[in-house]
Design a protein that fits this description.
The complex is a heterotrimer of chains A (332), B (295) and C (328). Chain B is mainly α and 295 residues long. Chain B contains eleven helices and no strands. Chain C has 328 residues and is an all-alpha fold. Classes of the chains: A alpha/beta (332), B mainly alpha (295), C mainly alpha (328).
């Protein structure tokens, strides 16, 4: 990995939800690192804790959820030890965030301009006029045509893609060091999705910000990320740079996920891999041992008994598995 | 036909576990359970009371026994016609609860039928029915209640009718909106496609789905019907003496509030607590039945 | 916007017509207004005949409706039976301002109290504050207005006395005798004393239910994605609630308040009756009690028109708060 400065160091994060029916360990000991200017792709099915992890970072987990353990070291300081007021100054200024649903993520009763200006005014010591100018520049930057007109429009007057661009403009308004994108393109049409990805990639290159790119779609990670972290039931199960993960997936889960990306795996390997069978286990009834064992074609007794550690299987390539996949291995 | 039964089977199963869930959630609702306990206590008191306190609520005592203070012989005292207030309180409670219950249930039934018909058939039928609802909802009903009461005459059944005439519109709107959304759903399409008759679709398929909001609105409706009865009777257009209701026990309240305020307390407090209980129960039912909470 | 206003105005016309028809039918069924007059020896038979003709009682019922409708439109509302010697119009326009005062005050008072309480209740959901507020909202919702009026009278006029021995607040009426020609400020002070109890009594119901509604609308909004966006921008919590959440929660409240107006008018009529306030509500009830059916019909129609106008205003307010329907 590069020798850039560490920006975000997530250490053993634990975020639990205390519901009436029991405790749900949405994030259970998750760790990863993001360096300055780096893009980390956090991948997993819904319910793997990736969104909760991102909300934990900016400390916006809704009740009954609570961060119960771990550290979130951002620029050398633990965000979990910050006061609400200090945290507020980081949100939107140093860490920007965009969400999945551009339809519901913008307030329907205020204009796009109003909502972007607000983000600028709360963090920067400039006047309204200046903020308005800056907002229009931002709209231009994210590729919204006729920014002066769009500035005065309401969210319902914009298409889904335009709204997501506006969201990105808002998140970029104070030049954050880290941009968290939580499934930002999932709700969009494929063509629009490609445009938004292109925009994010472009902005990332131009500004040099780091990106935490959360998605369930491995193919997007291939395009966007430098590093990949695969999450399953609140834990990281595989962690390495993009090339190594795609070439040499070690965890059977990653292996299975890759299978859903035809051009990347099946074409190259020409092997008929079994699809991942079954479903993500219920958060109230986690299986013993490795949480993936009920769905794993390679599971043995030890998998049913013990939870494996995240270990280095190849240089700088970590996986949480007793029986890491061998590339040469033929799967029945 | 087999398909239709299959559809119904699925619905029945879902319905069954749904109501078990509702019951479980309702039991956890503290205010609602408090309301239920108080209400049951009031109903038992009103029914059992007269069996123990065997005094005629209508008989006027001979002699100067008007407006007596509470005593051993008359625990609640006597009223301005020298009648035993406790006996009247029991009798009046029975009448008031009965009126509230009958009026709210009838209003709900009418509203549900209108809503089902309007929502299912749409078009002109819907437009006409909903304009009627709009009109009735715009008129301040209370003055009309009074007018209608004086037309129909003054009695228990007339009061129920009066409350029903102006009480069904909310339910009609509610049921219509639920039906409109159900109409778009697949099982309606499926049922229509296999030739199920409109009345069957309405009553077998839609009705169970509108049950939850209907039950809530009926519960709250009983409370407000009791208040309506009390208000109408208070003005002298409702249940007529010598028959007692909690409302008409307050009829002359304004005159004796100065020297016998207790006569205003007993029936009024009873109305208030009863209505409060119904509102608690209604709120608990709403929380327990709200499908949004399961998501 | 103009098209919307025109369409909306056209839509209210059939509602007003329908409401007039319903009032007419029900009040026409009420016994003959002339029967009582016949028994009054002071009224001349010729006068009754003249009135009968003026109100179209010589015509079939449906024609009488049109005749009545025409006279409503032309403002020729005929004489009042309740107050001989006055016209119905004089009587009604004397009562209307008083009712508007009572209802306007209760409206403002209820809003000022219930919106903040509803917000607090929602923000502190499941806290002690929330439970307390919830309990008191139910208390207000469940209270029969007229009985609460009586109890407040009892409290402020019988139990609580001024040092002079007079009651703390007047038990009813609208003006202290002899104050009619007092200077404006003294008259205002006098009026306020008379309005305090009715306004509180009338507000209790609406405050109770509006707090509940405000709470549930607010709770709904608090779970919306755009609030998370607002927080992620680094806005202070106050701003998140009072700028982003409140405006959205107010949208359904506007409709709800407009819908509850007829109930408030109903409540006002019985409150006026209890406190002996010479407003529209008391006028309608008295007119009905005394068979003054022309006055009752006009007063009722006027109340309905007021409700329709209020709904209309609510729709316009609505379109200002919610940009999504502005040009619909």
């Amino acid at each position: 990995m590069g020798n850039n400065e560490l920006l975000l160091d997530l250490r053993n994060l634990q975020t639990y939800f205390f519901t009436d029916d029991g405790v749900v360990k949405a994030v259970d000991g998750m760790s990863f690192q993001i360096r300055k200017g780096e893009v980390l792709g956090l991948v997993g099915e819904s319910g793997c804790g990736k969104s909760v992890a991102s909300l934990s970072i900016i400390r916006l987990v809704d009740k009954p959820g609570k961060v119960v353990g771990g550290e979130i070291i951002f620029k050398g300081e633990d965000l979990l030890k910050k006061s609400e007021e200090e945290m507020r100054k980081i949100r939107g200024a140093e860490i920007g965030m965009i969400f999945q649903e551009p339809m519901t993520s913008l307030n329907p009763v205020y204009t796009i301009g109003n909502q972007i200006m607000e983000a600028i005014l709360v963090h920067q010591d400039i006047g309204e006029e200046e903020a308005q100018k800056r907002s229009i520049e931002l709209l231009k930057l994210v590729g919204i045509p006729e920014p002066e007109r769009r500035f005065n429009q309401y969210p319902h007057e914009l298409s889904g893609g335009m709204r997501q661009r506006a969201m990105i403009a808002m998140a970029m308004s104070s030049n954050p060091d880290l941009l968290i994108s939580d499934e930002a393109t999932t709700a969009l049409d494929v063509t629009i999705q490609a445009q938004i990805l292109e925009l994010m990639k472009d902005l990332q290159k131009r500004t040099g910000m780091a990106v935490l790119f959360i998605t369930h779609d491995l193919s997007l990670v291939a395009e966007m990320a430098d590093i990949v972290a695969v999450a399953y039931t609140g834990k990281i199960v595989e962690y390495s740079d993009v090339r190594s993960v795609f070439k040499n997936p070690k965890h059977p889960y990653t292996f299975g996920l890759l299978r859903s990306v035809p051009s990347l795996v099946n074409e190259q390997r020409k092997v008929d891999l079994p699809a991942i069978e079954g479903m993500v286990p219920s958060p109230y009834h986690m299986p013993n041992g490795c949480h993936f064992h009920p769905r794993c074609p390679f599971a043995t007794d030890v998998c049913r008994r013990e939870m494996p550690e995240l270990e280095e299987k190849l240089p700088s390539h970590y996986a949480r598995c007793f029986h890491p996949v061998e590339v040469s291995k033929e799967v029945v | 036909m087999a398909t239709e039964y299959a559809l119904e089977e699925v619905e029945k199963k879902e319905t069954y576990s749904y109501w078990r869930m509702v019951f479980k959630r309702f039991r956890k609702h503290k205010l609602a359970m408090t309301g239920l306990v108080i209400l049951v206590a009031i109903i038992i008191t009103v029914i059992v009371g007269p069996l123990i306190w065997r005094v005629d609520p209508i008989a006027q005592l001979e002699g100067p026994y008007e407006l007596l203070s509470p005593s051993r012989d008359h625990p609640f005292g006597t009223d301005d016609f020298a009648r035993d207030v406790l006996a009247r309180w029991f009798a009046g409670g029975k009448i008031s609860l009965m009126i509230g219950f009958a009026a709210a249930v009838s209003a709900t039934i009418i509203g549900a039928v209108v809503g089902l018909v309007a929502g299912y058939f749409g078009g002109v039928v819907d437009a006409i029915l909903m304009r009627i609802v709009d009109i009735l909802l715009c008129i301040p009903t209370f003055p009309l209640l009074i007018a209608l009461a004086s037309v129909l005459g003054k009695g228990v059944w007339q009061i129920i009718l009066v409350i029903v005439v102006f009480g069904w519109m909310g339910d009609a709107r509610l049921v219509r909106s639920v039906v409109l959304s159900l109409k778009e759903e697949q099982f309606t399409e499926a049922a229509k496609a296999i030739g199920v008759s409109p009345s069957r679709i309405m009553f077998i398929h839609f009705l169970p789905n509108v049950m939850a909001p209907i039950i809530v609105s009926t519960t709250l409706g009983i409370g407000s019907s009791i208040v309506y009865e009390a208000s109408i009777s208070f003005l002298g257009f409702g249940v007529q003496a010598p028959l007692a209701s909690w409302g008409n026990m307050l009829q002359n309240a304004q005159q004796y509030i100065w020297n016998a305020p207790r006569l205003v307390w007993y029936p009024g407090l009873a109305i208030f607590i009863t209505v409060l209980s119904f509102n608690f129960i209604g709120d608990g039912l709403r929380d327990a039945m709200d499908p949004k909470l399961y998501r | 916007m103009r098209n919307y206003l025109i369409r909306r105005t056209l839509q209210s016309i059939p509602i007003i017509l329908g409401a007039m028809l319903v009032s007419f039918i029900i009040l026409s069924l009420v016994s003959d207004p002339f029967a009582a007059m016949m028994e009054n020896p002071k009224v001349k038979l010729a006068d009754i005949e003249r009135l009968r003709k003026a109100w179209g009682f010589d015509l079939p019922v449906y024609l009488r409706f049109f005749k009545w409708f025409g006279s409503v439109l032309t403002g020729n509302w005929g004489p009042s039976l309740l107050y001989p010697g006055y016209s119905a119009r004089e009587i009604i326009f004397r009562a209307l301002p008083i009712t508007l005062q009572v209802m306007g005050l209760q409206f403002i008072f209820s809003l000022i109290v219930s919106i903040p309480l509803g917000i607090i209740s929602a923000i502190k959901q499941y806290s002690k504050t929330d439970y307390t507020l919830t309990f008191f909202s139910f208390f207000g919702m469940s209270m029969p207005t007229f009985w609460f009026g009586l109890m407040m009278m009892l409290l402020f006029s019988v139990y609580l006395k001024r040092p002079s021995g007079a009651s703390l607040l007047p038990p009813g009426g609208i003006i202290t005798p002899g104050m009619e020609s007092a200077p404006f400020l003294a008259r205002l002070g006098d009026r306020i004393q008379y309005l305090i109890l009715p306004v509180i009594v009338l507000s209790l119901n609406s405050i109770g239910s509006w707090v509940r509604y405000m709470r549930s609308f607010m709770l709904e909004v608090l779970h919306q994605d755009y609030l998370r966006t607002a927080r992620a921008k680094g806005l202070p919590e106050r701003r998140v609630i009072y700028k982003h959440a409140l405006r959205n929660a107010l949208i359904p409240i506007v409709t709800l308040i407009a819908l509850s107006l007829p109930t408030i008018v109903s409540g006002a009529s019985i409150t006026e009756f209890v406190f002996n306030i010479p407003g529209m509500g008391q006028l309608i009830l008295n007119a009905e009690l005394k068979n003054d059916y022309p006055t009752a019909m006009i007063a009722l129609t006027l109340s309905t028109v007021l409700v329709v106008i209020a709904n209309f205003v609510a729709d316009i307010v609505y379109s200002f708060i919610d940009p999504r329907i502005r040009y619909a």
